[in-house]
User: Which sequence fits this backbone?
């Protein structure tokens, strides 16, 4: 149940954003690599969450496996090399059981972000779950965990003021762009179609009142760029066209998943030479790893704001928002108090249902024998009354062991459920085990 859940990862709290580059996964085979890692680490379910501020593995252990610290395995998986003694434990944080639930709740709600209450993270958590489901790596435990995390996030945003004001890294970046175009009006290029650029486009469009200011959406796939551009009345460009002949812009915000810099010295020189104002373009690099070649910025004296700069600015504003988190934290605590019941209901409901059915089946068999042998002369109404009475009595009798099972599931030591089953008739115990196995295969939750 909850005790099988775990999270291992690294975030902005331990290192700066650029240090996360060495722990992120890239390439087209991420799904295949995650599946192989789950098998190697003996994990029954697995999800991979990567944002500009964190890289985490969210998992459910195989109930039959021995509980162990998998940080050395995760370290090797992320970095491609074995950790030295104690290196994985120093580099990676680990959460288990209810602590893992609490951590994901805080992350999804934006309470563990550099910008308290940031808006992008909930979409990233949802995308992480969808990716895991598409890979066939998310099962009933992670489905339930993510469902609860997304539910509490929505509840917090609906019942608190945590989401009001400038609460995202994108908003901080947009603020810098606004300051720039107030000084030197002109066009702004957003490179990459991502939650970061989408939110930036939304904010910039509402603030662009001067016809001199306009947006250009740039993406490797022109169709995706055009789709986003159409939402905001912007121009769309393919990435190769932008590289070959960049338009004159006053600012560029780039946020892509590329594992190497896209704006290299040659391309930056073209951008620099096209600038119409007396100042070089403002460059905001929100890619992790970096999307802009840092040494080239120094060569042309271009101002580049990287993810570290944005996060550090967010940290300075963080304390001012902490007073707003008290109610949000209370809602998270309430969700944690319910999580054990939610797991018991979803994962072990079929087992408890099978127990109820067995009692009712036994009662029905007894009543049928009674009516055939000793009460043959009863009328239809009397027979139905006895059958209904027996069914109600069976449910009442089943209620007692059901309560006992719930107690074992919530408070019993590891293995207590199996100990309970071993004390039953073997055939009946196998029926309950089958119901339990089927629940793990068929439980489907909607978000």
Assistant:
């Amino acid at each position: 149940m909850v005790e099988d859940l775990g999270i291992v990862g690294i975030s902005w709290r331990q290192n700066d954003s650029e240090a996360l580059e060495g722990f992120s996964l890239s390439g087209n085979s991420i799904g295949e690599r995650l599946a192989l890692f789950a098998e190697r680490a003996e994990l029954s379910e697995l999800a991979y969450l990567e944002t500009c501020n964190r890289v985490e593995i969210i998992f459910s252990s195989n109930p039959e496996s021995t509980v162990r610290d998998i940080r050395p395995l995760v370290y090797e998986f992320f970095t491609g090399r074995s950790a030295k003694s104690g290196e994985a434990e120093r580099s990676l944080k680990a959460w288990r059981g209810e602590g893992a639930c609490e951590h994901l709740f805080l992350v999804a709600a934006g309470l563990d972000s550099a910008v308290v209450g940031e808006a992008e993270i909930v979409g990233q958590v949802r995308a992480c779950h969808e990716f895991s489901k598409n890979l066939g790596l998310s099962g009933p435990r992670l489905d339930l965990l993510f469902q609860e995390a997304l539910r509490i996030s929505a509840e917090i945003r609906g019942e608190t003021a945590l989401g009001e004001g400038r609460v995202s890294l994108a908003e901080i970046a947009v603020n810098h762009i606004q300051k720039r175009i107030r000084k030197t009006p002109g066009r702004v290029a957003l490179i990459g179609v991502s939650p970061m650029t989408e939110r930036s486009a939304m904010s910039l469009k509402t603030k662009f009142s001067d016809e001199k200011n306009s947006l250009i959406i740039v993406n490797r796939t022109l169709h995706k760029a055009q789709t986003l551009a159409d939402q905001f009345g912007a121009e769309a460009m393919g990435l190769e066209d932008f590289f070959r002949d960049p338009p004159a812009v006053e600012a560029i915000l780039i946020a892509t998943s590329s594992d190497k810099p896209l704006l290299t010295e040659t391309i930056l020189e073209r951008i620099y030479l096209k600038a119409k104002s007396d100042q070089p373009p403002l460059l905001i690099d929100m890619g992790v790893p970096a999307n802009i070649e840092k040494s080239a910025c120094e060569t042309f004296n271009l101002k580049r704001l990287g993810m570290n700069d944005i996060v550090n600015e967010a940290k300075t504003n963080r304390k001012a928002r902490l007073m707003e988190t008290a109610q949000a934290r209370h809602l998270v605590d309430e969700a944690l108090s319910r999580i054990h019941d939610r797991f018991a209901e979803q994962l072990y409901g079929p087992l408890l249902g099978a127990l109820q059915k067995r009692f009712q089946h036994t009662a029905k068999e007894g009543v049928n024998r009674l009516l055939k042998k000793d009460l043959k002369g009863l009328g239809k109404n009397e027979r139905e009354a006895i059958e209904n009475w027996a069914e109600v009595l069976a449910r009442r009798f089943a209620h007692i062991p059901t309560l006992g099972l719930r107690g074992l599931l919530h408070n019993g030591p590891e293995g207590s459920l199996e100990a309970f089953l071993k004390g039953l008739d073997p055939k009946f115990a196998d029926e309950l085990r089958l119901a339990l196995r089927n629940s793990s295969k068929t439980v489907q939750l909607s978000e």
